[in-house]
Design brief:
This protein is mainly beta. The chain has helices at 2-21, 168-172; strands at residues 34-35, 51-56, 66-68, 71-77, 101-108, 114-122, 126-127, 130-131, 138-139, 143-147, 152-157, 162-167, 186-188, 191-196, 207-212, 218-223, 240-244, 247-254, 257-261, 268-272, 290-292, 295-299, 306-310, 315-316, 322-326, 336-337, 341-345, 350-355, 361-367, 378-380, 383-387, 392-397, 404-409, 419-421, 424-428, 432-436.
Length: 440
């Protein structure tokens, strides 16, 4: 019995090391945009310098690639798009019988060659800066999970065989967000946690749900009432876990509130408001929330206000749980942290660095390369990588002093966030996926 227990502990330890080494899901191994094991990363590159390989993508996408072992997984739309049209009474989706498919690609990490391609979904729809391939894939090395913008959830083996499929619109009703569904599920343990926080284009209620990762079976589904009105009902983020005295709480944002739920049952534990004091009707929220232990950081529309609070209390904790509040948050990019400093990339290409615990600015509004920034910053190897929509990356030094280390340009419209594994960067532009590293 003792040997078996020791073996299980070792297995768990090995799994934790692997998780930290790779980039298994949106925002990385610690869900904070931080790659703790990355090392020896370059600060400059071009189309001809420090490119390990470059693989053409079928189409553009905001989906971030994920990496496990020697495989890179990436979702993409087929070339061509269908603009969404809505029945004003039923809000039914149209145009899904087209040839516009959604694919999952598996690439060899050594050379970028395609190992396999699986057709995941069809009916790609275009919503301004995103399409139906926007949610990022998730992997544990054995399976890959994909949510599409059609609100369909899939599981594939690491070899590309489909295991199960769920259509959440078919099961639970139409989803209406002004710019299409883009939330990536959260994989934690043996469950996938999904948020459907919406309401601008549908009267169906918002909800959260937990699914068995092996079978796709619904473990629980809970309605999530919120005070948001019109477009302030819509949130495009991903749920996260807070750790309170060793116990997990599922944190979800949107509808002008943040809520905590029991991940075992879905029961709401607490809620906190104050994110829309002027009752602005178009207060949609995009940037994802961050959790570090029992501390939560989340921002309202355009980062005003940007609030940190403590999870773990019960009931309505508005005005009781806040740790700090300012107006220095982002609108679209999700911030990054190593657990000590909080790096905030604004859409206009300015950087803020805050003390995570106190919210005190260490520097504010520091200018990086001009442009619009929709991708989220990557913190890795003592550096912060920030890419604008024109494909230009500004690398700055991590820490309380602002310092630009390098500026690099790739060709192609860029919405996806960069990731790092070992001594390699992966950047996905509209045209290609790049593996970038120091040439040996």
């Amino acid at each position: 019995m003792l040997l078996r227990a020791s073996f299980l502990i070792l297995l768990g330890f090995a799994a934790a090391i692997a998780q930290d080494t790779y980039w298994p899901q949106w925002r990385g191994p610690r869900f904070t945009g931080y790659a703790p094991k990355a090392h020896n990363l370059p600060v400059k590159w071009s189309e001809t310098e420090n490119i390990i390989w470059k693989t053409k993508m079928p189409s553009w996408s905001a989906a971030t690639p994920v990496v496990w072992g020697d495989t890179v997984y990436v979702t993409t739309a087929e070339a061509g798009f269908v603009n969404p049209t809505y029945d004003t009474k039923k809000l039914s989706r149209k145009g899904e019988a087209t040839s516009d498919k959604i694919f999952l690609l598996a690439l060899d990490r050594k050379n970028g060659k395609e190992k396999w391609r699986a057709e995941v979904d069809n009916g790609n729809q275009l919503f301004r800066k995103q399409n139906s391939s926007s949610p990022s894939p998730i992997t544990d090395g054995k399976h890959v999970w994909i949510m599409t913008g059609n609100v369909r959830l899939f599981c594939f083996t690491a070899a590309g065989k489909r295991v199960w499929k769920r259509d959440l619109v078919e099961d639970y009703g139409q989803v209406g967000l002004n710019h299409g569904y883009a939330s990536t599920p959260l994989l934690d343990g043996d469950r996938l946690y999904v948020q459907v926080v919406h309401g601008y284009r549908s009267e169906n209620p918002s909800y959260t749900a937990a699914f068995d990762k092996a079978t796709g079976k619904t473990i629980w589904k809970e309605l999530r009432p919120a005070p948001g009105i019109v477009e302030s009902k819509d949130n495009y983020g991903t749920p996260q876990m807070a750790i309170v005295n060793g116990k997990k709480e599922l944190v979800v944002f949107g509808g002008d509130i943040a809520t905590g739920q029991d991940p075992a049952t879905g029961k709401e534990l607490w809620r906190i408001g104050g994110f829309n004091p002027s009752a602005f009707q178009m207060n949609r929220t995009i940037a994802g929330l961050l959790t570090v232990g029992d501390q939560v950081v989340v921002g309202a529309n355009r980062g005003k206000p940007y609030v940190s609070f403590k999870a773990g209390q019960r009931g309505d904790v508005t005005g009781k749980a806040e740790l700090w509040t300012n107006n220095l948050g982002p609108d679209v990019p999700t911030s990054a942290t190593d657990g000590t400093l909080l790096y905030v990339l604004k859409d206009n290409g300015t950087m803020n660095c805050l003390d995570l615990k106190t919210g005190k600015p260490l520097y504010e509004s520091q200018r990086i390369e001009l442009g619009t920034y929709s991708s989220s910053p990557l913190l890795a190897d003592g550096k912060l990588y920030n890419i604008n929509e024109e494909g230009t990356t500004t690398v700055i030094k991590a820490g309380p002093q602002f310092e630009i280390l390098g500026v690099s340009k790739l060709d192609g419209y860029t919405l996806a966030s960069p990731i790092a594994v070992d001594d390699q960067l992966f950047i996905r532009t509209g045209e290609a996926l790049y593996c970038i590293g120091r040439k040996k």
